Amino acid sequence: MKYLHELMNDEQLMELARFRPDHMVSMVGLEKEYEDELKQEGTRRRTFVIVEKETQKPIGWANIRWWGPFSPGAELGIAIGEKTLRGKGIGTEVVGLLTQLAFNQYNLHRVEMFTRRDNQAMIRAAMKNGFMVEGVMRETLYFNGKYHDGVILSLLRSDKEAVKHTGSAQSTSRTH
Q: Which of the residues 8, 40, 71, 130 could staple to 169 if both were Cys, CB 3.0 to 4.6 A apart?
């Protein structure tokens, strides 16, 4: 929990992983949040710790957030806290695992991801897993004294099935 608390208060990481990077998280608040999640009380989220295979050291987190109790879709999110391990395909692998979990275990119809437009690593990781860019939300995020564009990507179960049958992910964007 201490490591997760450190990551959730890392300003640089939160600029990429959260809508409000200037929102600090207290240890007490974090413990309560995850205690409720474990008890499945009032939460529509499942959080996972990302662990490096070789060292078994925690390096980040991933989650699935449902929009509502009867919703056919959810949002996926990941954060790799160890800067030296970024750009090594871990994010792509984690997005693939979350997507499999969402479709195979939770029987979802649609998953989506939201990130800053300049977070090209996350956009590439999603697209390598078959996600398509649905659109750019201009100046939708505000931090560090300026507005930033956001990108929404999605994947439907039928898209994933098509990837499974053809053996390759489409990198077609739905926007220009």
A: 130
Counting the structural domains of the chain, the total is 1
Question: Which residues, in sequence order, are bridge partners of residue 11?
Answer: none
Q: What is the pLDDT of residues 14-47, one digit of tens each?
A: 666 555 545 566 666 656 665 666 666 556 778 8
111: containing domain: 2-166
pLDDT tens-place string over residues 106-116: 899 999 999 99
Tokens at 50, concatenated: 């990302």
Q: How far apart are CA 127 and CA 42, in angstroms?
A: 32
Alpha carbons within 13 A on the beta-carbon side of 170: 18
What's the CATH number where 125 sits?
3.40.630.30
Across the chain, the runs of DSSP E, i.e. the strands, are 45-51, 58-66, 73-80, 110-116, 132-143, 146-156
